[in-house]
Amino acid sequence: MKVFCGRANPTTGSVEWLEEDEHYDYHQEIARSSYADMLHDKDRNIKYYQGIRAAVSRVKDRGQKALVLDIGTGTGLLSMMAVTAGADFCYAIEVFKPMAEAAVKIVEKNGCSDKIKIINKHSTEVTVGPDGDMPYRANILITELFDTELIGEGALPSYEHAHRHLVQENCEAVPHRATVYAQLVESRRMWSWNKLFPVRVHTSCGEQVIVPPLELERCPGAPSVYDIQLNQVSSADFTVLSDVLPMFSVDFSKQVSSSAACHSRQFEPLASGRAQVVLSWWDIEMDPEGKIKCSMAPFWAHSDPEELQVRGTDISVPCFSGGLPQEEPVVQGSSLHLVAHHDDYCVWYSLQRTSPEKNGRVYPARPVCDCQAHLLWNRPRFGEINDRDRTDQYIQALRTVLKPDSVCLCVSDGSLLSLLAHHLGAQQVFTVESSAASHRLMKKIFKANHLEDKINIIEKRPELLTSADLEGKKISLLLGEPFFTTSLLPWHNLYFWYVRTAVDQHLGPGAVVMPQTASLHAVVVEFRDLWRIRSPCGDCEGFDVHIMDDMIKRALDFRESKEAEPHPLWEYPCRRLSEPQQILTFDFRQPVPPRPVRAEGSIELRRPGRSHGAVLWMEYHLTPDSTVSTGLLKSAEDKGDCCWNPHCKQAVYFFTMTDPRAPLGSPQTVSYTVEFHPHTGDITMDFSLSDTQDDGR
Fold it and tell me: Which residues are catalytic?
């Protein structure tokens, strides 16, 4: 059976209706899942196995049957561990139907189906009783419900319900306890992900400063934290202002509450500075004594750096950062209170001079953006706008193309280009903001800089522009970064090219387009860790999970194996095995061509290594002498370690993965076919390796 699915095309800007298989959503969910990545986390698996053995032993020592409730079982791995450890029976809950069906097969394959019942429900729908899903309450609770900030996947409500309805009082729990830690730092880089910095522009009339609206400066920011791999943040990018503070713990063996709460920790700053960001992570103890611990701490805060695990996605993301509502000066040795607030899904922080119990300032409600900027710009976009070197590139490029009589049209979502063009001498500037949110934000920015009467803002899709919108004038300079909030993959910002084509009638003779051209580039890499999300697991702690590997492979074969996916590669170290290579070029000075643009070729690998995939990115050539890269910035020539643009996601095309223990291959060639389809805006691709490297591994 086929179904029609509506899809907003981020490249062309149009809404398309596509005929898809009725299980298309399932295929996507499975293909993009991180099940394999989690199963490759050997440290996590071992610690869970140890904790489960200990819990089963404690129950058996009390002369009781070991009845296990496993919430979010996934493949059924933890339930199979429990059965192997001596559990009498396991009730394994999995809400995602395809995964539950796979778990049934995996459990049967491993000879555990007589002691494990897979329940395809949400845990809050499970019933207990003679006619229920479980005849009795369990006395061992096993879960893996944690995300970066511990509680973001609904762990607290799930535990709360389980203790009330599904498990016995004072049950054993694996994990037994979780503790959230925090450290206060000053970091211009991380603060730039949360606030808009002033932009200084040197003009013929002196220095002009673009300032953020007061509303934006006072805004507490987005309610969500920013998941990052702190191990990839240079220690030069922040100054530690506090010791690592244990903020709060959750004992999963007792009744858990999902009600809002706050936890205060008094501390004395280690140094004077400006408190801007809270770095936070957690650890879990698998046993009551805390002897079996799995830590997400970054390297500088890890109790035993020798045991530091490299973790990738999902549970393996080690840390998150959250900006304080406002930066605050702190003085070394002057006592302060760091307060962790949480509700059922979110954690946020505040800094207070006195204990919140004394002054009543507990901030029970999660922070909400009221300035529009945090709704329109994500953290990387804030960082991109605040990147002074990048801004200088645009300023220098604008100086070369602007004339005193220039009439400019700016097309990018929530961009400061229009302000730069005005300050650098354009006669008139129009800017198009197609969404109500970006329109409101830019109006606030223009007003804060007294430009509301000098820059014309048009709330309309650029394809629908009329001559009246432009006051009957012809555009002499069409500007774009380009950046659009709907873009997921690097080439989705080619929407700028479609806009340029749509407004062709409004361009005057000899009109200049900036960027003039763009190009798609690729490099073949070996990932240190990211390969795990596409690598089959096969055997996990002695259990056969090939069925899950096959399920993921079928989902990938449905479509996703022929597509690239976005990843912020500055967080995931990799080594280039080839030289960067230009694949396709796009000339914005001309309209979008009517026929596909196709490139075929090969990439020679110059270093030995495991070819995990090709990384693709866009480069925008503002002028012949100025290029902005969204991907590779530089790489160490000796080892080939890559340095990526931290403000953008790059596209990764994973090669077929087989045995992760395969030996390193010799330098070889990767063949490719890449095609741009102008009618749909899609870029399709296929990369193939020679046979000298065991099918990509």
Answer: 144, 153
